[in-house]
Amino acid sequence: MTTNNDKTAGSGSFAEDFRRRVADNRTSRWVRFAIVSLIFFLWVAWLGNWWVALFWFLLFDIYITGYIPLTWWKKSKSAAVRAVMSWVDAIVYALILVYFVFTFIGQNYQIPSSSLEKSLLVGDYLWVNKMAYGPRVPMTPVHFPLVQNTFPIINTKSYLETPQWTYHRLKGLGQVERGDIVVFNFPAGDTVATKVTNPDYYSLVRAYGRENILRNPQTFGEVVYRPVDRRENYVKRALGLPGEWLKIVDGVIHINGEPVEQPENVQFNYYFQLRQGAMTEAKWDELGIAADDRHSVNITPDDISGLQILGFTVNPDGTVPPVYISPLTPAMVKTLESDPAVTKVMKVPSFSPEPLFPEAVSQGWTPADYGEIWIPRKGATLKMGPRAWDIYGRVIRVYEGNSDAEFRDGKLYIGGEPQDSYTFKMDYYFMMGDNRDNSLDSRFWGLVPEDHIVGRPERVLISFDKDRSLFNGGIRWDRIFMNANPDKPKYE
Questions:
Q1: Domain coordinates of the chain in residue numbers?
Q2: Of 115, 119, 326, 350, which is the active-site residue?
């Protein structure tokens, strides 16, 4: 980070010294300062906070006057000091640059799960465009830019909890559209048990009880709260937008009562049976089914009559040819149905061992037959009754910042004052994975507030197949720089 700090103060008044320092700069340095100043003021205008413009005087000193001795080490008589500090200077400059790029432009993101298979694959590294919807001004501004919330190995927080800034999003290139693949902070990740990453903390509470988790840190780890922008990053497809009614009927999403087009590579779990023999690795690869999704069904004697009723083949000797279960796209289903070696293809009935959102009103719902639910819109007012509180109570208390909100005696109370209705402060979204039967999404943990939105994946930077060695197909060369959402439906 080169500066003009090697200037020495001359004799005379401050004004004379200031004029001398200004005059001593070459034209090239003034040009660099002018370019940096232009970029800085454009950034300030984008922020919409002109108090930040006061930092321009710091830039003026760094480039022109050099009163702050940022490069004192250049005058050191020790070669070791000069060598070490030159590296420190370069690293600090690089980290500041990375911080601004990752905060306001975009950053890389790795796909960890198969919830958007086949659009995005496990092992894809994406470039996420934060300007697509407008970058958020950091809510936890003091953080290390290369990690989300925890330093690896040493397992300590990578951010300071103070200061905390209120949510503010800069003007972006557009709005979230239906069908967009979106990266966002996991809303239910506000509280975490640090030794357990899946399921989330609230699922752990249902399974083990809050007191049991707190009493057993050796098993669950420390229970900590994370600010919005330090919560884990998730990636799903936006299918329900603010102000809309969403319902799922037999796996088909309905918006405001009308069915909408499914993504081309939407997947559901299917059973399929071979006449004889077993699936080979070559056959799995030909179908395009990932290694983690290749499952055989364990059949017991008690299952045989049920299989016959469903149309599966049972041999005269009572043996059953192999039956498999995997997530399949419509194209895969057609391929299997046209294969003479396959005797039966059947969609797996939808069910969930986990409660669906909102738990208090979702009895009888399934992941494939879900809702109907209204998605809040900023400025919209909703009359509050018991059912509305059951659905939106967490939204009002946690996401909208009304921690003292409660529902009693048939009324909503905020700050101790009774309210007949509630006006929402933010837009909300309903996010789902394309791998519908293998995606923990809004059907399970609820709505995504606008202040959790990070950005939109634009390109696959590189892709690694974890099931292959690096030199045996481990790099998916055909995915490098490809569109990160190639099959976005063209909604009306």
A1: 14-75
A2: 115
Active site residue 236: yes
Omega of the bond prior to 118 within 30 degrees of 0, cis? yes
Q: Look up tokens 């997530």; give the residue.
A: 327
Query: What is the Cβ-side half-sphere exposure of residue 63, based on CA atoms within 13 angstroms?
Result: 18
- Amino acid at the residue 372: E
Q: Where are the alpha helices (DSSP H) in 234-360?
A: 281-287, 304-310, 330-337
Q: Is 294 exposed, middle or buried (0-12, 13-18, 19+ CB in 10 A)?
A: middle
Secondary structure class of 106 (helix, strand, coil) = strand
Q: How many CA atoms lie within 13 A of 44 on its CB side?
A: 14
Report yes or no: 393 and 419 within 8 Å, Cβ to Cβ: no
Distance of CA 305 to the CA centre of its chain: 45
69: CB partners within 8 A, 6+ apart: 5
3-state secondary structure of 181: strand
Report how far residue 488's alpha carbon sits from residue 457's, in angstroms, rounded to the nearest whole number. 12
Dihedral sign, Cα of residue 400, residue 403, residue 405, residue 408: positive
Q: Choose among 78, 72, 86, 73: nearest CA to 5.
A: 72
**How close are the terminal C-alpha atoms of the chain, in Å?**
51
Report how far residue 18's alpha carbon sits from residue 35's, in angstroms, rounded to the nearest whole number: 22
pLDDT in single tens digits along all 492 residues of the chain: 445 555 444 456 888 889 898 998 899 999 999 999 999 999 898 888 888 899 999 999 988 898 888 888 888 888 898 899 999 989 988 988 888 899 899 999 888 777 887 788 888 999 999 999 999 999 999 988 888 898 888 888 999 999 999 999 999 999 999 999 999 999 999 999 988 877 788 889 988 999 999 999 999 999 999 999 999 999 999 999 999 999 999 999 999 999 999 888 899 999 999 988 889 989 998 998 888 899 999 988 888 888 888 889 888 888 899 999 999 999 999 999 999 999 999 999 988 888 999 999 999 999 999 999 999 999 999 999 999 999 999 999 999 999 999 999 899 999 999 999 999 999 999 999 999 999 999 999 999 999 999 999 999 999 998 878 887 778 989 999 999 988 787 765
- Helix ranges (DSSP H) in 242-294: 281-287
Query: Which residue, chain included where needed, has tokens 């796996």?
Result: 251
Length of the chain: 492
| Tokens of residue 215, six digits | 């009493």
Catalytic one among 118, 130, 236, 344? 236
The DSSP result for 46-103, as a single string, is: HHT-GGGGGGHHHHHIIIII--S-TTGGGG-S-HHHHHHHHHHHHHHHHHHHHHHHHH
Residue 442 a catalytic site member: no
